[in-house]
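Subject — a protein and its fold
Encoding — discrete vocabulary of local shapes:
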Amino acid sequence: MRIALLVLGLLALGLAGCTSPEAANGSSSEPEAPDWETYRDHIQQPLFNLAVDHASSSDDAERETGVEITTHRMVQVEIQMADPTAELPTGFLVLEEGRAELGESLIVQAYVRVDQLLDLSLEPEIGYIRTPTQPRR
């Protein structure tokens, strides 16, 4: 019986030590919401808003932003490459539909996962991400 109480006491003491200092102080360890100022030169604002609020239901997000979300939580976008010879960065789910050279720019029309939009927009190969001017159907 004493051994069982000792084990329970040690277990309780060990679990109490697992609390993070932030949680013990009552502060939240949730990441801060992305700041529009960081992304304004990289992504169109409706796509930014959609990416920030990607946890909400697709119907609500579509109504609020006017951007259609597929059942796989992807959106159709135009990606202007920073350099016309650049390739799309790896590590992102990007389903390319087509490419067009416009003067000195390369535009890639693709579907991108909503939860990857912001990270993708900050990649050095990417100039700007916007909704398509003529969506492909």
Remarks:
- Strands lie at 74-81, 94-102, 105-113, 126-130.
- The first helix runs from residue 2 to 16.
- The chain has a mean pLDDT of 79.
- The helical segments are 2-16, 21-24, 36-39, 45-52, 58-65, 117-121.
